[in-house]
Amino acid sequence: MLRFAGTRLPGYVEDILREGRAAGVVLFADNLTGPDQTRGLTADIQQAAGGDALIMTDQEGGAIRNLEWVGPARPAPAQGGPAAVRAASKLTPRQAKIAQAMYDELGPDGHRQHTVQQIADEFGVTRPTIYRHLQRPPSEHQRTGR
What we know:
Layout: H1 11-18, E1 24-27, H2 35-48, E2 54-57, E3 59-61, E4 64-65, H3 82-87, H4 93-104, H5 116-123, H6 127-133, H7 140-144
Parallel strand pairs: 1-2
Antiparallel strand pairs: 3-4
Helix pairs in contact: 1-2, 4-5, 5-6
């Protein structure tokens, strides 16, 4: 196992993985900036290793969260039982910000680039969870009372 600095797979790490001199990598917060970048980086790692790389990170919860957009937000001892964990499966502030940006993103046709279902799928939550976190512009009725 090895570790590297940065958000892109360095050539020397690619060589080590391709040659089978390491079983995989451990990723830390400085390697990970968001869901899309993480997917791309892990795909590059797997490609270099012929699809056999072990990819790890420390995601205990609480202060130890390299993937800030993925739960758990609380440390393991404070997570409670299954019902408490489900109740806590809300978006983190960073996830909510990313979800809002995805919701606000418009395509060339002027329509939303992502559906709420696509955003929910991205974070592994339900549509109602996404709706609770979105700051949507007020409707005509809300603005005018008509």
